[in-house]
Amino acid sequence: MSGLKILVPVKRVLDYALKPRIKSNKIDLTGQKQSLNPFDEIAIEEAVRLRDRHTKKTSPAAIASITAISLGPAKAADSLRTALAMGADNAIHILTAEDVDLEPLSVAKVLAHIVKEEGSNVVLCGKQTISDDSAQTGPMLAGLLGWAQVTQIAAVKFVDGETAEVTREVDGGNETLKAKVPMVLTTDLRLNEPRYATLPNIMKAKKKPLKKTNLADLGLELAPRMRNVKVEEPPPRKGGVKVEDVDGMIAKLKELGAL
C-alpha cells in the first residue's frame, strides 16, 4: 500500500457556547455564530497527529494525504479553511442550497461517492454533530462501503499500513480492537485536544486546494425519508429544595416517588 488516504468529513454548526433559538419549528441560525463541529475538530486533529507519528521514513503506515470534506452552503467553506489551517492537505466542498438540511443517510451516500472518487481508505469523522446528535452518518457510511468500523474511539494507532489498534469507549470502561484497512473511525471527545489554528497557518490554508462541486452534479438519489414533526425547547427545570438532614432528604425522595 502506497499510504493511507484519510478523508475527514466536517460540518459547520451553531457554536457550542450558544443557546439554540427556535423559530418556525426549527433552529434559528440568523445572526448566530457558527463554527466547526467539536467532534469533527477532534477528527482533524487526530488525522494530523497520525501523519506526524507515521512519517514515510519511520513508519510503514505513512499518511499519504488528509482531505477535509463538507456539505453545505457557501459559508461552509469557513469550516474547511479551519480544517486546512489545522493541517489538512486539501478540501472538498459539496455545495448545497442555504435551506437544505441533509439526513444522515443522504450524507453517508455522498461521502461513499467521494470515497470511491478520491480513493480514500480511512474515514475519520466525529461520532456526531451537535446540531442533531444523531450519530448515524459514520456507521451508515461503513455499511454502504462494506468497511470495518470502530465508533467512539478514545485512541488509535496504526500497527502497519493494513491494521489499526483502536481503543473505544463502552459502558463501564474501554475496549481495544484491531481493525483492517479500509475502515471508518468515529471520534469521541477524550481522543485529543485540538490545536488552535495559528495566523501563519490560516494564511497558508488560503493557498491549499479547495475543490467545489454542486450536490446536484453528483447524480445521487437523496430524497428525504424523514419528516420533522416538531421542534421545541425542553420544559424549564424546577428549582431544588433544601432539606435539614438525611431523614428529610429520604422523606422528600419518597414524596417525589424516587424511593
From TrEMBL:
CDD domains with a match to the protein in the record: ETF_beta (cd01714)
Record-level GO BP terms: amino acid catabolic process; fatty acid beta-oxidation using acyl-CoA dehydrogenase
Domain Electron transfer flavoprotein alpha/beta-subunit N-terminal intervals: 24-222
Gene Ontology terms, MF aspect: electron transfer activity
InterPro entries: ET-Flavoprotein_bsu_CS (IPR000049), ETF_a/b_N (IPR014730), ETF_b (IPR012255), ETF_beta_N (IPR033948), Rossmann-like_a/b/a_fold (IPR014729)
Key words of the record: Electron transport, Mitochondrion, Transport
Top-level taxon of origin: Eukaryota
Cofactor(s) the protein needs: AMP; FAD
SUPFAM superfamilies (alphabetical): Adenine nucleotide alpha hydrolases-like (SSF52402)
Cellular localization per UniProt: Mitochondrion matrix
A GO CC term attached to the entry: mitochondrial matrix
Cofactor binding note of this UniProt entry: Binds 1 AMP per subunit. Binds 1 FAD per dimer.
Family: Belongs to the ETF beta-subunit/FixA family.
Function description: The electron transfer flavoprotein serves as a specific electron acceptor for several dehydrogenases, including five acyl-CoA dehydrogenases, glutaryl-CoA and sarcosine dehydrogenase. It transfers the electrons to the main mitochondrial respiratory chain via ETF-ubiquinone oxidoreductase (ETF dehydrogenase).
Subunit architecture: Heterodimer of an alpha and a beta subunit.
Record's protein name: Probable electron transfer flavoprotein subunit beta
